[in-house]
Design goal:
430 residues; alpha/beta; Spore Coat Polysaccharide Biosynthesis Protein SpsA, Chain A; Four Helix Bundle (Hemerythrin (Met), subunit A); nine-stranded mixed sheet; 13 strands; 52% helix; CDP_ALCOHOL_P_TRANSF_CS; EC 2.7.8.34
């Protein structure tokens, strides 16, 4: 299936020097975010209708490797309305079903799942949101009145309405018949064609209430969209320390880094180098160095979340990046424990610290190794057991170093990690 993106409007309410589709939004332009969202959901080709400052948009997208085949159509009559822009795509899309999206609507890529499936009744369908309280600018939204599950009216000025349209449509070729009819009557908005389909009982609705979407028309809506994107970076698999501390800081760091040329892999390496430095401090053994090392470990833990955040914001996550991050984490864990053990030993001697350090290292390694296998078996996160993800383990190390309790730190890590490994082993058997 192909997609049609309407990106011809001016966007005069946005105080930006760029054309509206090229509005910067956390490392990508608005239209790039739409295109990458389509790619993420398996759409391999898109038609982009441009108008205002068309050449700038086309040049920008041609320079960018999007992974989607793009076909451009220039609409010299873009000022008339977006219905005219949509009609321009008729020669290319008139014999197939396609997705229709607005070039100024940001959305959760998962919102495309219910709209990308063909209707049994062969009707055009519109995505709707019934949660009116969640709509950012309800006054400016396009409202839809629904009766017995069927749309009966659409428009921005409806007094009685039940939902708003999200600016995303599943279109059959019939949409071009409706557009041709309404444009010939001097009605140039896409909403006019949708109203025609409603009149002919040829419009279906698909409810995506609860999914994130926003029409970016003003500076306020742009600011809100940025915050929602940052808020979405949290993951359901985040550990307690990530939820309560790390993410609250890492999002602010990511907000700055994502606008630069720094890649996720660079961030992973920087976080690893901080661990290397902290292990050197730990190996010196004196409390002031333990304090510095503990602080560095916790900051590295915070920074370790930024690589994934940048990857998700830019749609550049990769298997190699995840592999590199995992390898560096294991080396980092080894350096931390060795540094702490050596620093304690040169000042206190004795073999106890090496024994506890050994069991802590074994526990951490086997705990990490069993994560993926255990979750694959139970199709759930490790939250059923001891919540000891890496963010928690590094936090324990940081606190232990800061208060100069190395033996206790090793003992806690040894007991918790190895106990959880044993628990998992028993659980999987039964």
């Amino acid at each position: 299936m192909r997609a049609l993106i309407l990106a011809a409007g001016r966007g005069s309410r946005l105080q930006q020097s760029e054309p509206k589709p090229l509005t910067p939004l956390l490392g990508l332009t608005l239209i790039e975010r739409i295109i990458f969202s389509l790619k993420q959901k398996g759409i391999a080709e898109a038609v982009v209708v441009t108008g205002y400052r068309s050449s700038e948009i086309i040049e920008k997208l041609k320079e960018r490797e999007t992974g989607i085949k793009l076909t451009f159509i220039e609409n010299p009559e873009w000022e008339k309305g977006n219905g005219v822009s949509a009609l321009r795509a008729k020669p290319i899309l008139e014999n197939e079903d396609f997705l229709l999206l607005m070039g100024d609507h940001l959305f959760d890529p998962d919102i495309l799942e219910p709209v990308s499936k063909k209707n049994d009744n062969d009707k055009t369908a519109v995505l709707i949101d019934r949660d009116l309280n969640s709509v950012f600018d309800l006054e400016d939204a396009t409202k839809i009145q629904i009766k017995d599950g069927v749309p009966v009216d659409i428009g921005k000025n409806l007094e009685n309405y039940d939902a708003v349209d999200c600016g995303i449509f599943y279109c059959t070729p019939e949409i071009f018949t409706a557009l041709g009819r309404t444009v010939s009557e001097g009605k140039y908005q896409l909403t006019d064609a949708i109203q025609y389909l409603i009149y002919k009982d040829r419009l279906d609705i698909r409810d995506v209430t609860g999914r994130f979407w926003i029409d970016i028309d003003t500076e306020k809506s742009l600011k809100y969209a940025k915050q929602r994107l940052l808020d979405s970076l949290s993951k359901t698999t985040d550990g307690a320390i990530s939820r309560l501390l790390n993410r609250r800081i890492s999002k602010h760091i990511t907000r700055q880094l994502v606008e630069t040329d720094i890649t996720p892999n660079m961030v992973s390496i920087i976080a690893f180098l901080l661990i290397v430095l902290s292990s050197v401090f730990f190996a010196l053994g004196e409390w002031v160095y333990l304090l510095a090392g503990g602080i560095l470990v916790q900051f590295s833990s915070i920074l370790d979340g930024c690589d994934g955040e940048i990857a998700r914001l830019r749609f550049i996550g990769s298997g190699y990046g995840a592999f590199l991050d995992s390898i560096l984490d294991r080396y980092a864990d080894s350096l931390i424990i060795f540094g702490l053990a050596y620093g304690y030993w040169i000042h206190n001697e004795g073999l106890l610290v090496w024994a506890l350090g050994f069991f802590a290292l074994i526990g951490v390694f086997v705990f990490s190794y069993t994560n993926a296998r255990y979750e694959a078996i139970f199709e759930s996160s490790e939250s059923r057991g001891i919540p000891l993800r890496r963010d928690m383990r590094l936090f324990i190390v940081a606190i232990g170093a800061i208060i100069n309790q190395i033996l206790i730190t090793f003992l806690v890590l040894s007991v918790l990690t190895n106990f959880e490994v044993i628990r998992r082993t028993v659980t999987t058997r039964h």
